[in-house]
Amino acid sequence: MHLVLQELFVFSLLLAFIEPFANARNRKWSNNDNKSNFGAGEDLVTSLPGQPRVDFRHYAGYVTVNEKNERSLFYWFYEATTFADEKPLVLWLNGGPGCSSVGYGATQEIGPFLLDNDERGLKFNSFSWNIEANLLFLESPIGVGFSYSNTSADYDNLGDDFTANDAYAFLHKWYLKFPLYRTRKFYIAGESYAGKYVPELAELIHDKNVNTSLFIDLRGILLGNPETNDAEDWKGMVDYAWSHAVVSDETHKTIIDSCDFYSDDTWSNTVCSGAVEELLSQYKEIDIYSLYTSVCIGNSSGSDDKSTLVTAKSSSKMMPRVMGGYDPCLDDYAKSYYNRVDVQKGLHVADGTYSKNWTICNMTVFNGWSDSKGSVLPIYKKLIAAGLRIWVYSGDTDGRVPVLSTRYSLSSLGLPIKKAWRPWYHEKQVGGWLQEYYGLTFATFRGAGHAVPIFKPSASLAFFASFLSGEPLPSQR
Ligand SMILES: *[C@@H]1O[C@H](CO)[C@@H](O)[C@H](O)[C@H]1NC(C)=O
Ligand SMILES: *[C@@H]1O[C@H](CO)[C@@H](O)[C@H](O)[C@H]1NC(C)=O
Ligand SMILES: *[C@@H]1O[C@H](CO)[C@@H](O)[C@H](O)[C@H]1NC(C)=O
Ligand SMILES: *[C@@H]1O[C@H](CO)[C@@H](O)[C@H](O)[C@H]1NC(C)=O
Ligand SMILES: *[C@@H]1O[C@H](CO)[C@@H](O)[C@H](O)[C@H]1NC(C)=O
Ligand SMILES: *[C@@H]1O[C@H](CO)[C@@H](O)[C@H](O)[C@H]1NC(C)=O
């Protein structure tokens, strides 16, 4: 046992990579005005290395969210493949905190261009979610991916509220570039730590909507393996590890007997933190995000070999946030692709003479996170009362934010059941199980890990379509 109990203690971890920022310069790009998205012509992506040919337009670039402090967020937006002018707008967020929605959501999960594992560039995703909606990916907050601030003191304030406020400012500025979407039906989706971001941003939009000049037509939120309520998330993680034979009966019993996850002081109990460390050390040997798949045995070693990192603050109830994504090898392809000078030029990040330092997860952001809501369940209640559609899904082979965590959290909401637990089907097979509550729909994905669309691309797309239409998933083969 080697718990370092200080202000911050770090559980057994694989080494992470922390990279300083390359110097941020503004790009000047071609003046390609397009009447239908007239503010955004210069962001139209016309030459992205390795990109498959497609018939829809996509845009990438910066939106300045704070002029005074010079904070600027990077986005990548894909119009829907067909009938873009009729389909809703969906914002997708990844978590961390500190991880990139471009590196994960857009190019490993649900975007039209997935990282090609031959490292040639990108390959077309025939299950892309932009078949159903106009898809917007945001690198949020500053410090994540290409997003930055020129005021270094801004980085001292990173937390949930800061992130929600900047994302909100982003949306209004983005609408100035894309006025056609200003009145479009709007949804927010995300996974993992975005389980906090998504309801928080939805609440802000809901509150600000009382001012009609700020109105955004938010209709619902979609959450995948979301961090929701720290105490229940912890309890679920521990019980899941035990029920899936990752830890011994003895370690599980020690945790159950000694850990009080509802306390503000969980980690000062060294018996508890030692047993939790033992649990996490078992997960270090496999892929916590996907229990039954292999780990990447790559070339890299030493400080460049990230994958999982588990940390927690002794003074808080925060869950040790485990960094990384499903496939550590894919993370490496992302890193090499997005650090290419020609790719950054194609995405309007840099002018082609230098490159910015892009990382898939920024550990400085992660470690410096100062404000995290212990639970977003009160926000769920408020959004349910406001009549927003809330769907929560869970890949049932994820050990990080396991299906048990989500079930404990949702059951503590005490919502009345509308339709009892039943299987849902995709391509004649059970895709998972579904429970409809009044106010919320919960579904599992059978055999999927943390980032569900990587594992179940076709079923995920069907599920996403179902969410947008509000029609439940098929209850028969
Ligand atoms: C990016 O960050 C890494 C790790 O800190 C560093 O080794 C590298 O030199 C940086 N690259 C640039 C272009 O600044
Ligand atoms: C990571 O975030 C820190 C601030 O928290 C920032 O100074 C740094 O430039 C970021 N690194 C990268 C590679 O974006
Ligand atoms: C603007 O969009 C229209 C509609 O898709 C397209 O036909 C046209 O080529 C675009 N114009 C420019 C300058 O990109
Ligand atoms: C940040 O500083 C760089 C270098 O001075 C400048 O080019 C860029 O426009 C600034 N960013 C913002 C959002 O003002
Ligand atoms: C509504 O929002 C607009 C735009 O931000 C602002 O100018 C106005 O003062 C707001 N009105 C009220 C009543 O807060
Ligand atoms: C592993 O190393 C070989 C030889 O250096 C290289 O060709 C290959 O691309 C590397 N693979 C990965 C996944 O980095």
Automatic annotation (TrEMBL):
Q: Which domain of life is it from?
A: Eukaryota
Does this entry carry the keyword Glycoprotein?
Answer: yes
Please list the GO biological process terms of this entry: proteolysis
Source species, please?
Answer: Penstemon smallii
The compartments listed are:
Secreted
Q: Which residues form the signal peptide?
A: 1-24
Q: Which InterPro entries match?
A: AB_hydrolase_fold (IPR029058), Peptidase_S10 (IPR001563), Ser_caboxypep_ser_AS (IPR018202)
Protein name in the entry: Carboxypeptidase
Q: What is the lineage of its organism?
A: Eukaryota, Viridiplantae, Streptophyta, Embryophyta, Tracheophyta
**Any one cellular component term from GO for this entry?**
extracellular region
Q: What is its EC number?
A: 3.4.16.-
Record key words, sorted: Carboxypeptidase, Disulfide bond, Glycoprotein, Hydrolase, Protease, Secreted, Signal
Q: Which GO terms describe its molecular function?
A: serine-type carboxypeptidase activity
Family, as annotated: Belongs to the peptidase S10 family.
